[in-house]
Amino acid sequence: MSEKPVFIFGFPRSGTTLIRSVLGQHSRINLVNEPELVFALRHAGYTVGSKFSKGARNSLLDELKQIGLCRTHLERNAASIMPRYLESEGDLSFKEVFELLLPRPDADHVVWGEKSLNNLFFIEELLSMYPQARLIHVVRDPRSVILSYYQKKRRGTSGERTNIAYDFSSSRLRTLLFFQKQSNLWVRWMQIAKQSQKSTTSNHWHEIKFENFLDNPRECLQTVCDSVGIEYEQRMVESGMRVSDPALADKTAYAHKKLAEDLDPSRASSYLDLPDQLVWVIERLAGSMMQQFQYSLMHPGISLRQKLSLTTVTMGSAWRLKQKENAHLKKRCLNL
After folding, report:
1. How far is Cα 290 from Cα 280, in angstroms, rounded to an integer?
2. Which domain CATH number covers 252?
């Protein structure tokens, strides 16, 4: 395998699946969707320096399957990866296990890689294995991110859109707390991303704003193609190429209903559907970080009474939500 793989990551609902799918339509690029192998290996207690004996192969698989997305990946690709993995002789390194448990790209694919959200937390491991890796961090306006995530969480497998009308005076506390928690998490993911970026070079790290991608996909894709030394192909942005994407065959396909549609710049402003109170909550908690990524604030015109009430609720739940946020990040980062 090439020593210059591509790794895509970002906060949930930031557009990582779409960008992975678009890049994957290139005739010379092969990208795997959400294997979460590095996260699963690290979660099981292994490091880049670990060695795995032949006799431990099956027990290692059982450990990796404790992570749901990794289990799905291993089961979906069992026919193509298990014979090579189980029959390999001698001890295997962390890197060798990682590569053996990915489908091997065709000879024509000069660029390979994968998209896993948790790659963000293992930049050191990725660069230790692949010093020339290309890291693609996808960033999206948190107002659109959290709205999209809320709708995904509130939809059934039918994918029916959920009414998010926020009645300030009644029983929407759960919605408010959801937006509060996700706003704080988005900020903390972005802080980790900025710290990780400082430890890399411009050759490694490519940041794609989802809104810029929708508005001018060629420019964003051209940058990636140039960085890995291949020609841009127009076929990448043709929606018909994505109808057979593996994400659309998954049980969560309802969450990617727009994957095979034409790229739509209007998705950049989907947050305009949000009630003013929820926009205010997001901007109050994430506004400073939003401005660091050049996202303009709306400053919704809600009353002073509403602001006081929202502040009281968010402050009252801050400690409890902070514990949940820490648990969320500790599970993913492992070193917090």
Report:
1. 13
2. 3.40.50.300
